[in-house]
Amino acid sequence: MRRSSFRLVAAAAAIALAVTGCSSSSDDAANEDTEFEIFTWWASGGEAAGLQGMVDVYKAQNPNTEFINAAVAGGAGVNAKAVLQSRLDANEPPDSFQAHAGMELDGYVRGGQLEDLTSLYASEGWDKVFPSDLIKAITVDGKIYSVPVNIHRANVLWWNPAAATKAGITKAPVTLDEFFADLEKFKKSGIPGLALAGKGDWAIAHLLDWMLLATMGADKFEGLYNGSTSWTGPEVAAGIKNFQKALSYGNKGAGNLDWPDAGKLVTDGKAGFFIMGDWASAQWQSDGLKLGTDYTYAAAPGTVGTYQWLSDSFTLPVGAPHRNAAIAWLKVCGSKEGQDAFNPKKGSISARTDSDLSLYDDYLKSAAADWKKDRLVGSTVHGATGNNALMAAYNAGVGKYFSGGFKDNAGLAKDLAAAYEAGKA
Amino acid sequence: MSKIVKNKRSLSARLGGLLFVLPSILVVMIFVYGLILWSVNVSLTNQNSGTKKAIEYVGLKNYTDLVADERFTHSLSNLVKFTVVFILGALVTGFIMSLLLEKGIKGEGFFRSFYLYPMAISFIAMGTVFNWLLNSARDEEAGGLNLALQKIGLGFLQNDWYVSERGSMYAMALPAIWQMSGYVLALFLAGFRGIPDDMREAARVDGASESQIYRHVLFPQLTPTLLTILIILGHISMKAFDLIIGINGKSYVTQVVAVYMWEATFDKRDYAKGTSIAIVLLIMIAVVVVPYLRYNNKQQAYR
């Protein structure tokens, strides 16, 4: 009964939206569409504020187009993705929808549900202002299917300066050896060295993703996703061994914690280090904490000089009812003005290398500086190098390892290899 | 002559009645049975939203794959553990409570609704609260039940609850027991009330002790009630989804069949796999519910 009633809701939502968006589109490049519907799940906090900034830019340029945010209007919450999927499969797509740039789009691309946007990159000059590593990573068979609006960094180390001073740590660890030495110092000072968040498995998978990168370096790490590095080889085995060692410094009761809870342990001085993406900074600032006094950051040890990125992007679905309005929106998404309206509020940096840094806080300024010079590597658990099937299997494999008392390293390597295969199927 | 007229009348009355129920019959046909058939159909193909390849029928491959899928067997064994502990727990607590209330104590009505009230809380809200209560932190850092156990001097009972390696599903059954035992109480109480007082009196006249009356007169008469309860709890348990999601998200350690079905369908976008899991779940529930419905229908026809 639950299944069928959900379908009913999904169908009703799809019908309602289809009725509101049935005017025909023209091939004329100018945007004469009176309506434009996007699908996002940015509904609250800095995300919603950032989106509103970008919407304001859009409205100024397209005063005659009514802007509809389907995720908010539908109130579908956790079901938003499922509703989006059913609409795409029914060939009733929104005009544009949000997804992580990179392999998360793989299913849509292989399903022929997205339009190729490569020509837009040339006409808007994005091929020059986005870093070439990024362009390379989001290009599939010579075509690009989405416009990245922001860049988050996954490999960031966070800690509380007061707790570090108390433990006798004076500078950020640069290598894994220094990292483990510092974990030991935190332990001696009476707090767990590493804050872990086990709920939903992905934050632990995030930790493993960084550890693999830190252990084997960027080239070998990228090899994991193009087949040149084996998942059951010595590099991954060494990475998992380091991962196991790092987990042994974790806080008790990590299984109950979501990442904001684990982050709070660090900012409260109850745990030492925290490996988390830079959305943590945005969260803490909205909690009223001060960068530099309540928490501070460095590139995660072993990966200094490497920027492990993830990116939110917008797409153009095949058969979008208001194609011109959507293209106008994508132009705003890729523009300097749009990105600088969105990112300072979202707590991420612009994907462009020419953003106006005066608008960003100190952390984001340093991230933007690294973005321009670092080696760029995609994040696995946030959809850059792994598609949905890979991510689901990867997280489950890590969850199994993390919740089990016996740490079966070879078993985890096998599960990760199977996850990689699941992504290719 | 008059007989024919009467028949005509009843025919039109029947037609009118049919017209009234027709919309709901149609809706149920389409949205329940039609979609079940549709799901069965999808589960026999290789349909997968992520690829452009032509949809082909692959027979029972999806089902045989499930048997070999460690993720599926893990979620199934989790579900079995959860079901056993949940049903036994709710039965025992509900039955004991009904024994206490059965004698017609003062304020029975109050207690009945008092214990039934947890049922009014949605699983998802309860999941959020029990997520806090079943916190695994211990000693100084403890919260929730672990803290309560310390305060009453039972600190040695502190537990990892649903993040423990072996006991996670047993801990997960606690909130479900808490919620449903009041319902079991109400059903058993109704069962007791359905037994005529003459029987007890007759037994007393024959010189039976109070415990003998319960054992030999009252309990046997509760068998249909017990069966009803087993069926109701059984199918609630097998559909468990929102409680698990509310407490522990989609974490591997507490994943059950319905959660894995959701993940396969909407995260992996593998429709064939998702629908085959759904059909397995449907069959499991049908095995429990259908014989009971038939039995019930026969009983009613008999009356």
Architecture overview:
The complex is a heterodimer of chains A (about 425) and B (about 300). Helix content of chain A is about 50%, strand content about 10%. In chain A, helix 2 packs antiparallel against helix 16 and helix 11 (about 200-225) packs antiparallel against helix 12. With about 425 residues, chain A is α/β, with parallel strands linked by helices. In chain A, strand 1 (about 35-40), helix 2 and strand 2 (about 65-70) form a beta-alpha-beta unit. A five-stranded mixed β-sheet of chain A has the order 2-1-3-12-6. Chain A has two domains: about 1-150 and about 310-375, 3-Layer(aba) Sandwich (D-Maltodextrin-Binding Protein, domain 2), CATH 3.40.190.10; about 155-310 and about 380-425, D-Maltodextrin-Binding Protein, domain 2, CATH 3.40.190.10. With about 300 residues, chain B is mainly alpha-helical. Chain B folds into two domains: about 1-45; about 60-300, Orthogonal Bundle (MetI-like fold), CATH 1.10.3720.10. Helices cover about 75% and strands about 0% of the residues of chain B. In chain B, helix 7 (about 170-195) packs antiparallel against helix 10. The longest helix of chain B is centred in the N-terminal third of the chain and has 42 residues, at about 1-45. Classes of the chains: A alpha/beta (about 425), B mainly alpha (about 300).
